[in-house]
Amino acid sequence: MVAHRRLDSQVKRERVVAAVDAKLAAGHELTIAAIARHAGVSRKFIYAHPDLRAQIEHRALQATARDTSATIAGGQVSIASLRADAANAKAQNHRQRQQLRSLEQRLSETLGREVANELGPGDTERPEELRAALEASQANAFELGEQLADAREELEAVREINRELLATQNRPGR
Questions:
Q1: Which of the two residues, 154 and 25, has the higher pLDDT score?
Q2: Over the Cα atoms of the chain, what is R_g?
């Protein structure tokens, strides 16, 4: 009878070890309850065999460490891929900026040709005339601004004199 109990206990231990291996292979979390359920034994059986429980806990710790390492490595791959994506986006932005500058230059040249065609072939001197007229108008506007400022100063002085005269005439006793 003792031999039968030992054999039964050994079979249960083997089923527990097989359940641990199966849970690890499936990527499931190792808990005493889940292993007992999978092996068809009671939790009390696992807790009654401290060496078996220690083996389960040790294997669970190894699996957690391995999963953590894989997660960290996966995170590093993600960071590396994000850096690569950022570098690609930066290069693409640079290419698009260059293309935009090129297109702006072409548009400027095209519009310039259109304006030159509207002016006609004999009007090549006209832009210089217009530039000279613009500079003369700006100089005239500056002079007029100066004259306006002088006129305002004179007007303010006249108003002050007028106030003083009115104050003098309105004083009692005069």
A1: 154
A2: 48
HSE-CB for 153 with a 13 A CA cutoff: 6
pTM: 0.40
Instruction: Identify the three-state secondary structure at position 31.
Output: coil
CB < 8 Å & 24+ apart, contacts of 102-108 = none
Torsion sign across C-alpha atoms 61, 67, 71, 77: positive
List the single range of 50-54, 60-64, 74-78, 117-121 with lowest mean pLDDT: 74-78
DSSP string for 62-99: HHHHHHHHHHHHHHHHHHHHHHHHHHHHHHHHHHHHHH
As a dihedral over the C-alpha atoms of residue 79, residue 84, residue 89, residue 94, rounded to 10 degrees, the angle is: 130
- How far is residue 148's CA from residue 156's CA, in Å, rounded to a whole number? 12
Looking at beta carbons, which pairs linking 127-136 to residues 24 or more positions away fall under 8 Å?
none
Q: Which two tokens mark 7?
A: 């054999």
Chain segment 92-111, per-residue pLDDT in tens: 999 999 999 999 999 999 99
